[in-house]
Design a protein that fits this description.
With about 130 residues, the protein is α/β, with parallel strands linked by helices. It has five helices and five strands, in the order βαβαβαβαβα. It has a five-stranded parallel β-sheet with strand order 2-1-3-4-5, with helices on both faces.
C-alpha cells in the first residue's frame, strides 16, 4: 500500500552502523517515521563505542563492508559484549557468498542492498517484533 507505515507496539532503539552517509540518512528517516528511536554510527569503532558505554539498544543494523574494523570483526565483538542484542546484517556486495554463509550459520538475518522501505521494515519487524 502506498504510504503504509509499520508501527512498533513500543518504541525500540535501533543502532545503525554504516559508513555511507546516504544509507544512514535513509535508515534514520524511514525508521523514525515508523516509530523507532535511531542512533547512527559511521564506523565500526564508533558503533562499538556506543555499545561499550551502555546505550540501550534493542537491535543493530550492521553493514558488513566497513573500513578499518570490518563488519565481521565488529559482529564478533558485539556477540562478546552484548550477546542479547538482535542484529540485521546488510551488504551491497551480492557476490560475497562468505558473508551470506556466515549470516546463515549464525542465524542472523541478512538484507542485501539495495532495499526499499517495505523490505527494510519487514526485516526489522522479523528481528524485533
Amino acid at each position: 500500500m502506498q504510504g503504509e507505515t509499520f508501527k512498533p507496539l513500543e518504541r525500540k532503539t535501533i543502532l545503525v552502523i554504516d559508513d555511507e552517509k546516504n544509507i544512514r540518512t535513509f535508515l534514520r528517516r524511514v525508521l523514525e517515521k515508523n516509530g523507532y528511536l535511531v542512533v547512527v554510527a559511521s564506523s565500526g569503532e564508533e558503533g562499538l563505542n556506543l555499545l561499550t558505554i551502555g546505550n540501550p539498544v534493542d537491535m543493530i543494523v550492521l553493514d558488513l563492508n566497513l573500513p578499518q574494523l570490518s563488519g565481521l570483526r565488529l559482529l564478533e565483538a558485539i556477540r562478546q559484549q552484548r550477546p542479547e542484542i538482535k542484529i540485521l546484517l546488510t551488504s551491497g556486495l551480492s557476490c560475497d557468498v562468505e558473508m551470506k554463509e556466515i549470516a546463515e550459520k549464525e542465524s542472523i538475518p541478512f538484507l542485501e542492498k539495495p532495499y526499499d522501505n517495505k523490505t527494510l521494515l519487514r526485516n526489522i519487524q522479523g528481528v524485533i517484533p
